[in-house]
Write a structure and sequence with these properties.
Layout (H helix, E strand, L loop, with lengths): L1 H46 L8 E9 L12 E11 L4 E8 L2 E11 L3 E7 L8 E8 L4 E8 L8 E9 L21 H6 L4 E3 L17 H4 L4 H14 L7 H7 L18 H14 L6 E3 L3
Antiparallel strand pairs: 1-2, 1-8, 2-3, 3-4, 4-5, 5-6, 6-7, 7-8, 9-10
Length: 298
Protein backbone atom coordinates (compact mmCIF):
# COMPACT_ATOMS: atom_id res chain seq x y z
CA UNK A 1 0.00 0.00 0.00
CA UNK A 2 2.84 2.28 0.89
CA UNK A 3 4.46 1.61 -2.50
CA UNK A 4 1.27 2.50 -4.34
CA UNK A 5 1.01 5.74 -2.35
CA UNK A 6 4.60 6.73 -3.19
CA UNK A 7 4.06 5.88 -6.85
CA UNK A 8 0.97 8.06 -6.94
CA UNK A 9 2.91 10.94 -5.44
CA UNK A 10 5.64 10.59 -8.09
CA UNK A 11 3.10 10.49 -10.90
CA UNK A 12 1.28 13.55 -9.56
CA UNK A 13 4.61 15.40 -9.12
CA UNK A 14 5.66 14.56 -12.67
CA UNK A 15 2.35 15.74 -14.08
CA UNK A 16 2.63 19.00 -12.11
CA UNK A 17 6.17 19.57 -13.36
CA UNK A 18 5.12 18.96 -16.96
CA UNK A 19 2.18 21.31 -16.57
CA UNK A 20 4.45 23.99 -15.04
CA UNK A 21 6.94 23.59 -17.88
CA UNK A 22 4.18 23.80 -20.47
CA UNK A 23 2.78 26.93 -18.80
CA UNK A 24 6.25 28.52 -18.75
CA UNK A 25 6.78 27.71 -22.42
CA UNK A 26 3.33 29.03 -23.25
CA UNK A 27 4.03 32.22 -21.30
CA UNK A 28 7.38 32.74 -23.07
CA UNK A 29 5.77 32.07 -26.43
CA UNK A 30 3.02 34.57 -25.66
CA UNK A 31 5.61 37.17 -24.62
CA UNK A 32 7.58 36.64 -27.81
CA UNK A 33 4.40 36.88 -29.85
CA UNK A 34 3.35 40.06 -28.05
CA UNK A 35 6.77 41.59 -28.68
CA UNK A 36 6.69 40.63 -32.36
CA UNK A 37 3.17 41.98 -32.73
CA UNK A 38 4.16 45.22 -31.00
CA UNK A 39 7.20 45.67 -33.26
CA UNK A 40 5.09 44.87 -36.30
CA UNK A 41 2.42 47.33 -35.19
CA UNK A 42 5.03 50.05 -34.68
CA UNK A 43 6.50 49.38 -38.12
CA UNK A 44 3.06 49.39 -39.70
CA UNK A 45 2.17 52.54 -37.78
CA UNK A 46 5.20 54.33 -39.22
CA UNK A 47 4.79 52.90 -42.72
CA UNK A 48 1.15 53.97 -42.69
CA UNK A 49 2.26 57.60 -42.34
CA UNK A 50 2.22 59.07 -45.86
CA UNK A 51 5.50 60.50 -47.11
CA UNK A 52 3.78 63.82 -47.70
CA UNK A 53 3.50 64.21 -43.91
CA UNK A 54 7.21 64.99 -44.06
CA UNK A 55 6.63 68.11 -46.16
CA UNK A 56 7.06 71.53 -44.55
CA UNK A 57 9.50 73.30 -42.27
CA UNK A 58 12.21 71.80 -40.06
CA UNK A 59 13.96 74.32 -37.80
CA UNK A 60 16.83 74.31 -35.33
CA UNK A 61 20.55 74.97 -34.90
CA UNK A 62 23.12 74.64 -37.69
CA UNK A 63 26.19 73.54 -35.73
CA UNK A 64 29.75 73.65 -37.18
CA UNK A 65 31.72 70.40 -36.95
CA UNK A 66 35.10 71.53 -38.31
CA UNK A 67 35.18 75.13 -37.13
CA UNK A 68 38.28 77.24 -37.83
CA UNK A 69 38.63 79.58 -34.84
CA UNK A 70 41.38 81.53 -36.60
CA UNK A 71 39.01 82.56 -39.36
CA UNK A 72 35.93 83.41 -37.36
CA UNK A 73 34.11 83.42 -34.03
CA UNK A 74 32.16 80.32 -33.09
CA UNK A 75 28.41 80.65 -33.55
CA UNK A 76 25.52 78.31 -34.30
CA UNK A 77 23.20 79.81 -36.89
CA UNK A 78 19.53 78.98 -36.74
CA UNK A 79 18.35 77.28 -39.93
CA UNK A 80 15.04 76.30 -41.46
CA UNK A 81 14.95 73.55 -44.09
CA UNK A 82 11.76 73.27 -46.08
CA UNK A 83 10.72 70.09 -47.90
CA UNK A 84 8.55 71.54 -50.66
CA UNK A 85 7.60 68.50 -52.73
CA UNK A 86 8.28 64.82 -53.46
CA UNK A 87 8.04 63.03 -56.77
CA UNK A 88 7.31 59.47 -55.68
CA UNK A 89 7.52 58.16 -59.24
CA UNK A 90 11.28 58.79 -59.49
CA UNK A 91 12.00 59.44 -55.78
CA UNK A 92 13.04 63.04 -56.32
CA UNK A 93 12.87 65.63 -53.55
CA UNK A 94 12.69 69.43 -53.83
CA UNK A 95 13.05 72.09 -51.17
CA UNK A 96 15.01 75.08 -49.90
CA UNK A 97 17.08 76.19 -46.95
CA UNK A 98 16.98 79.52 -45.12
CA UNK A 99 19.93 80.56 -42.96
CA UNK A 100 21.92 83.75 -42.29
CA UNK A 101 19.87 85.78 -44.76
CA UNK A 102 20.26 83.27 -47.60
CA UNK A 103 17.43 81.32 -49.20
CA UNK A 104 18.80 78.51 -51.36
CA UNK A 105 16.86 75.93 -53.38
CA UNK A 106 17.92 72.31 -53.47
CA UNK A 107 17.08 69.14 -55.37
CA UNK A 108 18.06 65.51 -54.91
CA UNK A 109 16.90 61.98 -54.39
CA UNK A 110 15.45 60.09 -51.44
CA UNK A 111 15.07 56.49 -50.35
CA UNK A 112 12.17 55.21 -48.27
CA UNK A 113 13.01 53.60 -44.91
CA UNK A 114 10.91 52.03 -42.15
CA UNK A 115 10.99 55.30 -40.19
CA UNK A 116 10.57 57.68 -43.12
CA UNK A 117 13.23 58.43 -45.71
CA UNK A 118 16.86 59.44 -46.21
CA UNK A 119 17.84 62.06 -48.78
CA UNK A 120 20.84 63.60 -50.47
CA UNK A 121 20.21 67.00 -52.02
CA UNK A 122 22.40 69.63 -53.64
CA UNK A 123 22.15 73.40 -53.78
CA UNK A 124 22.79 75.03 -57.19
CA UNK A 125 26.47 75.82 -56.59
CA UNK A 126 26.40 79.41 -57.85
CA UNK A 127 26.69 80.85 -54.34
CA UNK A 128 29.94 80.66 -52.30
CA UNK A 129 28.02 79.13 -49.40
CA UNK A 130 26.24 76.39 -51.37
CA UNK A 131 26.75 72.73 -50.53
CA UNK A 132 25.18 69.31 -50.20
CA UNK A 133 22.74 68.15 -47.52
CA UNK A 134 22.46 64.56 -46.32
CA UNK A 135 19.57 64.02 -43.95
CA UNK A 136 17.16 61.51 -42.48
CA UNK A 137 13.52 62.33 -41.83
CA UNK A 138 11.69 60.38 -39.13
CA UNK A 139 7.98 60.69 -39.91
CA UNK A 140 6.87 59.42 -36.51
CA UNK A 141 9.21 61.60 -34.43
CA UNK A 142 8.84 64.51 -36.89
CA UNK A 143 12.57 65.23 -36.93
CA UNK A 144 15.31 65.77 -39.47
CA UNK A 145 18.92 64.90 -38.65
CA UNK A 146 21.89 65.20 -40.94
CA UNK A 147 24.95 67.03 -42.19
CA UNK A 148 25.84 69.72 -44.71
CA UNK A 149 29.16 70.02 -46.56
CA UNK A 150 30.25 73.10 -48.47
CA UNK A 151 31.26 72.84 -52.12
CA UNK A 152 33.99 75.44 -51.58
CA UNK A 153 36.29 74.45 -48.72
CA UNK A 154 37.36 77.96 -47.75
CA UNK A 155 34.79 79.06 -45.20
CA UNK A 156 35.30 79.11 -41.42
CA UNK A 157 32.89 76.18 -41.16
CA UNK A 158 32.96 73.85 -44.16
CA UNK A 159 30.66 71.27 -42.59
CA UNK A 160 27.77 71.35 -40.16
CA UNK A 161 25.45 68.97 -38.37
CA UNK A 162 21.87 69.51 -37.29
CA UNK A 163 18.86 67.98 -35.58
CA UNK A 164 15.75 69.89 -36.58
CA UNK A 165 12.13 69.68 -35.46
CA UNK A 166 9.13 69.81 -37.77
CA UNK A 167 7.48 73.17 -37.11
CA UNK A 168 4.67 75.30 -38.46
CA UNK A 169 5.38 79.01 -38.72
CA UNK A 170 2.68 81.32 -37.38
CA UNK A 171 3.09 85.08 -37.11
CA UNK A 172 2.27 86.22 -33.58
CA UNK A 173 2.63 89.93 -32.71
CA UNK A 174 2.44 89.11 -29.00
CA UNK A 175 5.78 87.25 -28.95
CA UNK A 176 8.12 88.96 -26.49
CA UNK A 177 11.86 89.09 -26.04
CA UNK A 178 13.01 86.77 -23.23
CA UNK A 179 14.42 88.28 -20.06
CA UNK A 180 17.89 86.89 -20.70
CA UNK A 181 18.24 89.22 -23.70
CA UNK A 182 18.85 92.15 -21.38
CA UNK A 183 22.55 92.71 -20.71
CA UNK A 184 23.40 90.38 -23.58
CA UNK A 185 26.59 91.17 -25.42
CA UNK A 186 26.22 92.21 -29.04
CA UNK A 187 28.39 90.77 -31.76
CA UNK A 188 31.65 92.62 -32.31
CA UNK A 189 34.18 90.67 -34.36
CA UNK A 190 37.25 92.57 -33.18
CA UNK A 191 36.63 92.51 -29.43
CA UNK A 192 35.21 89.00 -29.32
CA UNK A 193 38.07 87.49 -31.31
CA UNK A 194 40.82 89.35 -29.47
CA UNK A 195 39.86 89.00 -25.83
CA UNK A 196 36.56 88.26 -24.08
CA UNK A 197 37.48 90.57 -21.20
CA UNK A 198 37.58 93.64 -23.44
CA UNK A 199 34.81 96.19 -23.53
CA UNK A 200 31.95 95.49 -25.86
CA UNK A 201 28.53 96.77 -26.82
CA UNK A 202 25.66 95.41 -24.74
CA UNK A 203 21.92 95.64 -24.35
CA UNK A 204 20.15 96.94 -21.26
CA UNK A 205 16.92 96.06 -19.45
CA UNK A 206 15.18 98.79 -21.46
CA UNK A 207 15.12 96.48 -24.48
CA UNK A 208 12.21 94.63 -22.80
CA UNK A 209 10.03 97.68 -22.18
CA UNK A 210 8.08 97.89 -25.44
CA UNK A 211 6.62 95.63 -28.12
CA UNK A 212 6.51 97.54 -31.43
CA UNK A 213 4.29 94.90 -33.02
CA UNK A 214 1.50 95.58 -30.53
CA UNK A 215 1.77 99.15 -29.29
CA UNK A 216 2.17 102.48 -31.05
CA UNK A 217 5.44 103.95 -29.84
CA UNK A 218 5.87 107.58 -28.82
CA UNK A 219 8.95 109.75 -28.51
CA UNK A 220 8.72 109.38 -24.75
CA UNK A 221 8.84 105.58 -25.01
CA UNK A 222 12.20 105.47 -26.75
CA UNK A 223 13.96 108.83 -26.41
CA UNK A 224 16.46 107.61 -23.77
CA UNK A 225 17.18 104.16 -25.20
CA UNK A 226 20.65 103.14 -26.38
CA UNK A 227 21.41 102.45 -30.03
CA UNK A 228 21.69 98.70 -29.41
CA UNK A 229 18.35 98.54 -27.61
CA UNK A 230 16.66 100.49 -30.41
CA UNK A 231 18.14 98.19 -33.08
CA UNK A 232 16.95 95.03 -31.33
CA UNK A 233 13.49 96.44 -30.63
CA UNK A 234 13.12 97.40 -34.31
CA UNK A 235 14.43 94.07 -35.56
CA UNK A 236 12.12 92.16 -33.21
CA UNK A 237 9.38 93.18 -35.65
CA UNK A 238 11.15 91.41 -38.50
CA UNK A 239 11.95 88.41 -36.29
CA UNK A 240 8.25 87.87 -35.48
CA UNK A 241 7.61 87.64 -39.22
CA UNK A 242 10.33 84.99 -39.61
CA UNK A 243 12.91 87.20 -41.30
CA UNK A 244 16.34 85.58 -41.75
CA UNK A 245 18.99 88.12 -40.73
CA UNK A 246 22.11 88.78 -42.77
CA UNK A 247 23.17 91.16 -40.01
CA UNK A 248 25.33 89.01 -37.75
CA UNK A 249 24.76 91.23 -34.75
CA UNK A 250 21.05 90.50 -34.94
CA UNK A 251 21.66 86.78 -35.47
CA UNK A 252 23.65 86.74 -32.25
CA UNK A 253 20.51 87.97 -30.50
CA UNK A 254 17.60 86.25 -32.24
CA UNK A 255 19.15 82.87 -33.04
CA UNK A 256 19.09 82.14 -29.30
CA UNK A 257 15.39 82.92 -28.87
CA UNK A 258 13.18 79.80 -28.86
CA UNK A 259 10.24 81.26 -30.76
CA UNK A 260 12.37 82.73 -33.55
CA UNK A 261 12.15 80.77 -36.79
CA UNK A 262 13.71 82.09 -40.04
CA UNK A 263 11.40 81.42 -42.98
CA UNK A 264 11.90 84.36 -45.34
CA UNK A 265 14.50 86.79 -46.66
CA UNK A 266 11.94 89.51 -47.44
CA UNK A 267 8.97 90.27 -45.16
CA UNK A 268 8.32 93.88 -46.21
CA UNK A 269 4.90 93.08 -47.65
CA UNK A 270 3.87 91.33 -44.42
CA UNK A 271 4.49 94.23 -42.04
CA UNK A 272 1.43 95.84 -40.50
CA UNK A 273 0.69 99.57 -40.66
CA UNK A 274 1.49 99.85 -36.96
CA UNK A 275 4.83 98.10 -37.39
CA UNK A 276 5.79 100.29 -40.36
CA UNK A 277 5.03 103.42 -38.35
CA UNK A 278 7.09 102.21 -35.40
CA UNK A 279 10.00 101.19 -37.64
CA UNK A 280 10.15 104.71 -39.04
CA UNK A 281 10.23 106.25 -35.55
CA UNK A 282 12.84 103.80 -34.24
CA UNK A 283 15.14 104.41 -37.22
CA UNK A 284 15.06 108.17 -36.62
CA UNK A 285 16.16 107.70 -33.02
CA UNK A 286 18.82 105.12 -33.94
CA UNK A 287 20.65 107.71 -36.03
CA UNK A 288 21.44 109.85 -32.99
CA UNK A 289 21.43 107.38 -30.10
CA UNK A 290 24.62 106.48 -28.24
CA UNK A 291 25.88 102.94 -27.96
CA UNK A 292 26.19 101.33 -24.54
CA UNK A 293 29.48 99.65 -23.70
CA UNK A 294 30.31 97.49 -20.73
CA UNK A 295 33.24 95.37 -19.59
CA UNK A 296 32.80 91.61 -19.95
CA UNK A 297 34.44 88.60 -18.43
CA UNK A 298 34.85 90.05 -14.94
Amino acid sequence: MKRIYVSLLLIIGGLAACQSSEEANTSQTEQNTDKEEQEKAETEETSDVPLTDGLGYYAGDFEPVDFDYEKDIYHENKITISIDSLNEANETIYGHSIVAGNKRPFKGTYEVTEAGYVAKVREPGDDPYDGVFNFTIDLKEKTMTGTWDAFQQNASANATKYTLEHRIFIYDPALTLPENVQWARLYDETSLAANLTREGEALTEDVLKVNPSLQELTNKDIENLTKGDLEVIRNSIYARHGYSFKNRKMRFVFDHIDWYMPVSTDVRNQLTALELKNIDLLKRYEQHAARYYDSFGR
